[in-house]
Structures are given as structure tokens and as C-alpha cells.
Amino acid sequence: MSNIMEIFNILKKLDFSYCTRHGLAICDNSLTVLSKFPSNSINLVITSPPFALQRQKEYGNKDQDQYITWLLSFAKIVYEKLRVDGSFVIDLGGAYKKGVPVRSLYNYRLLIQLCDEIGFHLAEEFFWYNPSKLPSPIEWVNKRKIRVKDSVNTIWWLSKTENPKSDIKNVLVPYSERMKKLIEDPAKFYTPKERPSGHNIGASFGNDNGGAIPSNLLQISNSESNSLYLRRCKEFGVKGHPARFPEKLPSFFIKLLTEPEDLVVDIFAGSNTTGLVAEKLSRRWISIEERIEYIQASSFRFIDSNINKTKLDEIYNSINSESKINLKDYQEPKKLFNGDALNF
Ligand SMILES: C[S@@+](CC[C@H](N)C(=O)[O-])C[C@H]1O[C@@H](n2cnc3c(N)ncnc32)[C@H](O)[C@@H]1O
Question: What global pTM score does this model have?
Fold first, then answer.
């Protein structure tokens, strides 16, 4: 199955909460929804599952084993629904074992099982460094001062085959000042030569490629405080989703691993950051979240800032798991979107 519109034609027959120009938000258990997808239909699943920390109050080995088994049941079906050149990107926060200042290995155990049992390849591991993360756990870091603050999440980029679609030209980062000078006047800075390490520097080192190659350490602050989403949550007296990831995170992987019109899916969508980013980048998206209050508030992300409170109220209150609200009429086309709208 390759045609994206064919896939959407199958999926739009399902109940959904709202649709936009490029995507669908579905309120249900993602295991149920994923089972309805055609095989080999998704280009990228990117998600941040409820962490072991948030899902359970106990962190003994047994519970972590249960957590891994739970997550593997989703991964198994993701594998089946991904296209051959598709990718599965999973963001996992670390955790301590209960009552001791020793880290759990659950995220590493999960990685090994994803590869050994399900058949994923580890295309590359990433580390998301969030400088604005607060120190925790309080007992080991703030009170006893025996552990430093944990500000890195592991992100596993998994693929169905050894050669998933990817293009780093889409995620180049700005050159350093030194590199800019080198590009301006290469002869002044270096002469092509062989190095003892074998990393030979040739004349092409000074070429301007439009930006530098990014590393697998992603430094992204998670400190959103004044977005349309948060302002509207405040206006409606609802709490913003407590575990949102920053837009730059899905943006990096969506640009790296997909092209416009490709299908991006988030199976633990929360406030639907992934859907918003996919929409901005003209990718088709489907976001699945089991709690309706998160889906309702996530609609704020897609409704133009000119829409008045009465209308917003009406939309917000009419969203339920089968409301099929069409938000296209409240989206400002040129601001967010380039591609053709979906036809619902
Ligand atoms: C860590 S949050 C995701 C936050 C999201 N990345 C964002 O930026 O808002 C995980 C979400 O998964 C949802 N969830 C947990 N189990 C689920 C399931 N079986 N199906 C669908 N959603 C689920 C939770 O309700 C929670 O909102």
C-alpha cells in the first residue's frame, strides 16, 4: 500500500475527534487503532510513551519488566505497520530504581528487546539534553547531594531495515564562526594533508554545504511558556499536558526521516506536538491519545489566533471521541501549511 490518500480513505472511516488540513486526531487506545492501519503504510512513528516513572508508582524489577512487555506490544504492531524504509523514534526518560540511588536499565533492556525480539535495527542512538530540566530525584540530588541532575533522555532511532529513508541535508545546523571563516578563505586556515588518525582532510573540507552536520546530542530546552496552546489552556482553566516534548524534537526527526506528504504517526500523542509539527512541515499525520481531555486541548494548537473565544468554546466543547470536527475552516492556510488539504 503506497498511496497516502488510499490510507487516509481507510482511516477516515474510523471515529476521530478532529481533522485538520493534513491530519487526524483519534481518541482511543493506540493498540486498537494501529490494528486498523494497512501493513507497510507508515513512514515514521515518533513518540514519547508514558515513562516508567509516570506509569507506575513502584519501580522494582518486576514492574519494569511489565512496563517493557507493555511497550513491546505496541512496538510489535508498529513494526508491522511501518513501511520497509520507515523508522520508529522513541523518546525515553531514565529512571532510578525504587529507594536506592541506582539507575534502572529499563530503557537499555527495552532497546535490546526491540532489536532482538521484534527485529528492529538501531539506526542510531540520540541523547536529548534538556538544560532546563529541574534537578531530581530530590532525595539523591537536592537533599543528600550524592547524584547530579539527570538532564538527558535517550532517544532510540529504530528502523525496519538497515537502510531507512533519511537525509541529513534537511537538518544541517549553522556553521561555527571558525568554520565560516574557513569557508571564506580555506587557504588561510589549512592545507590538505594526511593525518595519523587516517581522517584525511581534503580540499573539499572547505566547501560550503549550507550548514554543518548535526550530532546525535540534541540540545533542546523544554521551556515553552507562552505558546498559543498554553495561553488557551489558561484561558479555559485547563492544565497544559504535563509531559509535552518541545516542537524542535519531533521537528528534527520528521525533517530527517520523511518528505512532504509522508505519513507521520504518534501513538502516545498527549498534547499533539507531533501533529502540529507535521502539519507545519506539510506531512500527513495521525495522532492517537486515549484521554479525551488532552485531545480537546490539543485542538487549540490548530485553530488560528483570530478565532474568538465563543467559537473556540463551541469547538472545544463539541470535541469527543467520535465528533469528527473539521478544523480546516479555522486554520489560516498560508501561515502554517503548504501542501494540499485532505478531503474530508
Ligand atoms: C508522555 S505523554 C506524550 C506527550 C506528547 N509527546 C506531547 O508533546 O504532548 C504520553 C501520553 O500517552 C497517553 N497514553 C498512554 N497509554 C496510551 C494508549 N494505550 N493509547 C493512547 N494513548 C496512550 C497518555 O495519556 C499520555 O498523554
Answer: 0.91
| 49 given a catalytic annotation | yes
What stretches in the chain show pLDDT beneath 50?
A: 57-60, 338-344
| 170-208: pLDDT as tens digits | 999 888 888 888 787 777 776 766 777 766 666 666 778
Q: Which residues form the domain of 88?
A: 4-168+215-333
Rounded to whole angstroms, how far apart are CA atoms 175 and 148? 31
Dist. CA 3–CA 344, nearest whole Å: 16
Task: Name the residue of 128, 268, 321 to mutate for ligand 1: max ligand atoms within 8 A of Cβ.
Answer: 268
Looking at every residue in the chain, the average pLDDT score rounds to 88
Rounded CA-CA distance 114/22 in Å is 30
Tell me the CATH number at 272. Answer: 3.40.50.150
Q: Are residues 164 and 193 both part of a single domain? A: no
How distant is the alpha carbon of residue 30 from its chain centre?
Answer: 16
Q: How far is the CA of 246 from the centre of ligand 1 (A)?
A: 15
Residues 101 and 10 in one domain: yes
Atom of ligand 1 nearest to the CA of 245: 8
Q: Is 174 a catalytic residue?
A: no
Task: Please count the structural domains in the chain.
Answer: 2
Q: Is 48 a catalytic residue?
A: yes
